[in-house]
Design brief:
The chain is of the alpha+beta class and 421 residues long. Helices cover 40% and strands 22% of the residues.
Length: 421
């Protein structure tokens, strides 16, 4: 029995996870991002410099037996990247890093949330320009497209847009209450503040409009018409610049804007975003700018990044509704010959060309070998038999429909048939 919130991946699922990881990391490499691996636990007093109280509270803690110091299983990768950027790699800017690691957080048992979460992400450190934010969003978009996922949405917000409206003389408590209403998307809470005479009629109307200000490109102009302060005006300008780059990257069709988003308000310093699949209604990733984080570990530096939840991506892909997991053709070679030369040579040549090849060494009947391939989701079976080898042919069987055909025992002919299967 495993602890709640932890998942064991059996061979088929583990292979799918590895394929997704490899594909997405390949996208990041093509954009110039280099992979790093961070420690699975670190000293709490060091790591906490880059985390909020909520994340610290949800982290799993343990004691270092050699020093007595408190340690924590990593609940997020970004603080570790910030530590590395502010120390070991402090002289390299801009810095493009990627990762594919697991994090550990205590989660209540609802909504299918896991306590061990597989994350894959990228961090761009040292650039404050809007083009950097656009690059990160474009990479996230391309990562999903590489899985065949097309119907996704990236809800983009700008932290300073809402902050500009809250920097107008509200006391700390009232500002917190207004922010809470935006976090919950509750217009009724704004109505309550109005009924208690804590905000004016004008403010009530403005905040209700802002909470519901969510949609496509036309919402930028609508948001601009409501702006009455320089902070929000600069935020709109920055967001417009980012969106202009996203158009150039060709990913604007997946972008929507949420001007009433307040989650991550205390962490992010500029553009931030959430990625979700309308088909499923849940978030599969998020990201944004965090210019104040790296300075907690060394020299201050602007930064932006994103992380995807691999578990949720796998769940959505396995339904077959939103995309597909890229597959490398897998083959089981069943050899009924005394001389194993043909089987061994064919297996080696196919592997050189990128195929996954397993030999069924156990002596058993063909039907049992087909059953074995089917259970392991190996789609292709090549059967080598004495009477057919003498004629320089083999049998290719589809393990799903169990139909077979005779094909020449020539590598080119076999690979052509596998590619057209």
């Amino acid at each position: 029995m495993t602890p709640r919130g932890c998942v064991t991946l059996l061979p088929e699922s583990a292979e799918k996870k590895r394929t997704i990881e490899s594909t997405i990391l390949g996208v990041m490499r093509r954009w110039g991002f280099n992979e790093i691996v961070t420690p699975i636990f670190e000293y709490l007093d060091v790591l906490s410099a880059g985390m909020g109280e909520d994340l610290i509270e949800r982290g799993y803690k343990l004691t270092d037996r050699s020093t007595g110091r408190l340690m924590m299983l990593r609940p997020d990768i970004t603080p570790q990247v910030a530590r590395i950027a502010g120390s070991a790699l402090k002289d390299l800017r801009p810095l493009r890093l990627s990762y594919c690691l697991n994090v550990f957080r205590y989660e209540e048992q609802h909504g299918g949330r896991q306590r061990e979460i597989y994350q894959i992400g990228a961090e761009l450190i040292g650039l404050k320009e809007p083009e950097a934010d656009a690059e990160i969003i474009a990479i996230a978009s391309e990562a999903l497209s590489s899985m065949g996922i097309k119907d996704f949405r990236i809800a983009v917000s700008q932290r300073d847009f809402l902050r500009g409206f809250l920097e107008k003389g509200y006391d700390r408590e009232l500002k917190h209450e207004i922010q809470k209403a935006f976090e919950r998307k509750e217009s009724s809470y704004i109505e309550l503040l109005f009924s208690e005479n804590r905000i004016s009629e004008k403010e009530r109307g403005l905040f209700i409009k802002l909470i519901d200000l969510f949609g496509e490109e036309d919402k930028i102009a609508e948001a601009s018409s409501l702006v009455d302060n320089e902070i929000s005006e600069r935020a709109i300008k920055n967001l417009t610049d980012v969106y202009s780059f996203l158009k150039t990257y060709g990913v604007a069709e997946n972008i929507i804007f949420d001007f009433g988003e307040a989650r991550g308000f205390d962490y992010h310093t500029g553009v931030f975003f959430e990625i979700f699949l309308p088909e499923f209604g849940y978030e599969i990733g998020s990201g944004g700018r965090y210019d104040n984080l790296v300075g907690n570990f060394g020299e201050p530096s602007p930064a932006t990044g994103f992380a995807l939840d691999l578990g949720r991506i796998m769940e959505s892909l396995e339904t077959g509704k939103v995309g597909r997991i890229p597959e490398t053709a897998s083959i089981l070679i069943v050899d009924f010959c005394e001389d194993k030369t043909h089987a061994l040579q064919l297996a080696r040549e196919l592997r050189v060309r990128g195929y996954n090849v397993t030999r069924d060494i156990i002596k058993r009947g063909l039907e049992d070998s087909v059953d074995y391939a089917s259970k392991l989701s190996i789609p292709n079976i090549i059967v080598i038999e004495e009477d057919k080898v003498s004629k320089k042919v083999v049998t290719l069987i589809n393990s799903k429909n169990r139909k077979g055909e005779i094909i020449p025992l020539k590598l080119k002919k076999i690979t052509e048939r596998l590619e057209n299967a």
